[in-house]
Backbone:
């Protein structure tokens, strides 16, 4: 009874608490579908051989017999029990036989589980599996891929979470579980094969083939705690309007006039852009980003957490609507930085945004860039490194992005304020994370200086 009361108090202000999908749970079907679809999208990329292996420039091999993950009400309830039905700042003890994923931050108005899933899954865009030459499987050999590897693990079938937002404590907590114990070193992430399933015989253990995703659907998909029907993936996403100059959370993209014509998955597109920046900037501040020669760049002491800005989005939307072929003149965006991407042959809006944002960051491993003094020099202005240094510029605090389809091409652009790439200035201050934050800032993600 006490646990139920604590849970009710913790989630009383949440937009999804009025229509729980699981008896005793807190997540509604819309949120569940959004989370499950996100994980399965990465699983489909993996089995199709469309997932890049971090910053290596190589693709991970095609898979086989990768399961389509489904929501488990039992795991959701186990997660609620683990956190005691309230916001917590320390990770609970991992339930036996499960893998857990934990996040706790201030600013509950900003954070949600969708953001954390983006950060966890986005590990593959900054880090790589070291040895992918084996013919039979890809194995877990890089602890910096801990969250990604366990979320896309081929034999995992179930996932469940609790999300708590506690206004009086100014805390957000997410705690998620899968139905397998955590991968150990050299454990199998997925089997290498010929790609997507096309018939039920391509799957094992009584699973059937979902030809749309190419993933195998396990025979048992129901859970004992379900309030109604089986919890299965759907296509809807949670939506809440963005206000002007706010952080982006579970939002309807284009709130500031962005170019995301239907049926573009706008919310996920623009959310990916900001969440990738959070993750990459945090990894840089922690000293986990390597240069082309393999040397790690220094830790960053003053790396700010970006805020999504709808005014910047609206301005850059007007630009991409013109179907440009290159970045805009600096005179047209005084004081603002810009990254630009145009390419054809991409599947959809989502693929375009993913490719744009990751390609801007990955140049740090592809070209000769900034030195260990992390100072931006005159010669860098004509180098592809400018996309990385703009994304990494510590004093930049706002960004806004837009995407347009121009014939068979996709055009993606993001603008940043204040602009980076200032000659003879440092990209960021070297030092331990959050040791040189501006007055009034607090530290999030263990690395980013956050201002109200």
Residues:
């Amino acid at each position: 009874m006490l646990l139920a009361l604590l849970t009710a108090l913790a989630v009383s202000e949440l937009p999804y608490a009025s229509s729980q999908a699981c008896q005793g749970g807190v997540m509604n079907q819309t949120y569940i579908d959004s989370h499950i679809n996100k994980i399965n999208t990465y699983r489909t990329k993996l089995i199709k051989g469309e997932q890049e292996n971090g910053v290596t420039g190589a693709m991970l091999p095609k898979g086989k017999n990768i399961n389509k993950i489904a929501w488990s009400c039992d795991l959701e309830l186990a997660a609620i029990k683990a956190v005691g039905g309230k916001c917590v700042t320390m990770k609970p003890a991992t339930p036996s036989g499960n893998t857990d994923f934990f996040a706790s931050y201030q600013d509950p108005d900003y954070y949600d589980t969708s953001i954390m899933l983006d950060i966890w899954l986005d590990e593959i865009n900054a880090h790589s599996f070291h040895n992918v030459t084996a013919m039979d499987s890809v194995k877990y050999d890089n602890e910096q891929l801990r969250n990604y590897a366990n979320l896309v693990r081929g034999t995992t079938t179930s996932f469940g979470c609790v999300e708590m937002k506690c206004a009086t404590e100014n805390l957000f907590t997410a705690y998620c579980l899968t139905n397998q114990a955590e991968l150990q070193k050299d454990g199998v992430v997925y089997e290498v094969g010929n790609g997507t399933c096309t018939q039920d015989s391509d799957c094992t253990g009584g699973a059937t083939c979902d030809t749309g995703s190419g993933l195998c659907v396990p025979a048992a998909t129901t859970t004992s705690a379900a309030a109604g029907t089986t919890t299965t993936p759907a296509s809807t996403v949670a939506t809440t309007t963005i206000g002007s100059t706010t952080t982006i959370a579970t939002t309807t993209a284009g709130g500031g006039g962005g170019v995301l014509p239907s049926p573009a998955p706008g919310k996920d597109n623009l959310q990916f852009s900001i969440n990738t920046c959070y993750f990459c900037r945090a990894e840089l501040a922690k000293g986990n980003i390597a240069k082309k020669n393999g040397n790690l760049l220094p830790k960053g002491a003053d790396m700010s957490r970006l805020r999504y800005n709808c005014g910047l989005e609206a301005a850059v939307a007007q630009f991409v609507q013109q179907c440009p072929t290159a970045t805009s003149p600096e005179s047209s965006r005084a004081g603002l930085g810009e990254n630009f991407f145009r390419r054809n042959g991409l599947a959809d809006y989502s693929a375009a945004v993913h490719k744009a944002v990751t390609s801007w960051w990955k140049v740090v491993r592809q070209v000769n860039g900034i030195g260990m003094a992390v100072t931006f020099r005159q010669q860098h202005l004509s180098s592809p490194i400018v996309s990385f240094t703009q994304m990494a510029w510590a004093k930049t605090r706002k960004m806004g992005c837009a995407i347009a389809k121009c014939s068979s091409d996709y055009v993606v652009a993001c603008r940043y304020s204040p602009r980076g790439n200032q000659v003879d200035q440092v990209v960021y201050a070297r030092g331990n994370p959050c040791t040189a934050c501006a007055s009034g800032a607090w530290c999030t993600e263990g690395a980013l200086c956050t201002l109200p």
About this structure: The longest strand covers residues 158-166.
